[in-house]
């Protein structure tokens, strides 16, 4: 500790369990809140900041003080926080705790010093944003609704000031009641009672009408001149059935109603609302209605929240929407509204690190200077097409490159067998290249092979990687007890992969009974096995076979890393092979070594030959740290105290039995013993 101080510098990847979203349209920065109390602030690529509430309470809502470098967070522990963003590390300036009521909705108008807070009881409190204390002005629910109405209107689900008059506050209650409150006169302008629950409200910029989304999948339009009934009611995804009934639809959870200078038709954008009967209704959707055109965008994950980005921060100006930010449970996308086919922007943040769960990581510093450009040029050819050609709209903040100038690469292995190379030289990660290790193997058919028994969900999951940036050799260990060696090539090729199978399992007569090994996970009960000699086939139908089947035909491989050699451990006695726990590669000698609980194998990857295969008992002998006792040694086999005590004859016989073209000296075996 006196020589090193470890501190977090940056957090990469998608925010875990996101809950809410906010955008500053002037500074062009974005904030994402999470269920664990985290806040992620994003700007232009490279601007990425993470802060955490000490309480760990979920962040329910975020509100930027637009163009002022501050952010309000409303948390599940009924506390409001004011964050100062005008410093390198954002910090909390003020906090305000609500003791008796639960917050349900917050609204902060542009350039206003009053923050409106709606509660579960239906009351609205007003907070002075400068002193961050309650003003004492409370709009009680029983004052907002008619005195003759005894039923409680439910929690507040919407608050907004009128675009025409900031002194008028529109309050939406969950039950379907909407009230416009005159803040100066402290009285109600009008009340609307609707028989469907309200989820959201959105104003037309002129302040003469607004739109509501409801729990039955409908949208209603209301005009302030006549609030007795809506001027329009639509079910965007609900059709009238033959018997005259309308289809039942899912709730429309949020609607945005935006006007545009370039078109007389407004944009109506909403989430949900699909028919329960449609097969497509099973997937989360975002619908964009513009004129007579209706576009439904299907999402891979549930929608947490979406925001429509507009050129102006003023609610009383024509909005001119140009993009929609959609926060999903496990993804973050942005849709370009300026093009008729609504393409998505290419996300510059490393949000897809956990596209498939990360199962291993490796960090490489001071790589050769040419390795990152080479990987990037190959990886660029893998990228999807069809993205928007416009610049990423979130362009706020500034950042400076760190003092280090050496290339850094992070490699991540994933549950689906993919490997990703990331440029970590700057603050932000940039994906360089993606490798799919599963393409080496045949797809297992139902009931075929043993991959399913060993790793039912992810038979290709990556457990370990070794990379030599200088020689560009790359090695991957998978959960199905396999090792794949890759070589880098700038050209595509038709390659026939070489497959080697290794038996690396204890014989039953070498293992002590279960009672003596019950604390050691590497050994299983040998009582059901019959003694065998090394290399003899097992009793099971799949014995002496590996978990996965390597493609035995020439495979067309694109430029980049191309598989050259696959080494797999075999099943023995109806038992799957132990997972590989260690791996090393030596490009100078052309050797690949790997080990498991049961032993070590060394492979000559140039001549594609197994050089040696040594059990753990032979490696350790009497110095075995697990104190594994031999039972009845086989005939013609000497008990050894260490690998270095083997005679020259034994080594030569062992090598001859494996038909290796490479001779191994005692010195190299001694080194193996020391490294083990």
TrEMBL record:
Pfam families: LLGL, WD40. Residues 524-541 have a biased composition (Low complexity). The keyword Repeat applies. WD repeats lie at residues 191-232. Transmembrane segments: none annotated. Keywords: Exocytosis, Repeat, WD repeat. InterPro entries: Lethal2_giant, LLGL2, WD40/YVTN_repeat-like_dom_sf, WD40_repeat_dom_sf, WD40_rpt. GO terms for cellular component: plasma membrane; SNARE complex. Residues 234-343 form the Lethal giant larvae homologue domain. It comes from the Eukaryota. SMART domains: WD40. One of its GO terms (biological process) is exocytosis. One of its GO terms (molecular function) is myosin II binding. Residues 638-652, 661-676 have a biased composition (Polar residues). Residues 517-547, 630-676 are annotated as: Disordered. Belongs to the WD repeat L(2)GL family. PANTHER family: LETHAL 2 GIANT LARVAE PROTEIN, SYNTAXIN-BINDING PROTEIN 5-LIKE. This is Lethal giant larvae homologue 2 domain-containing protein.
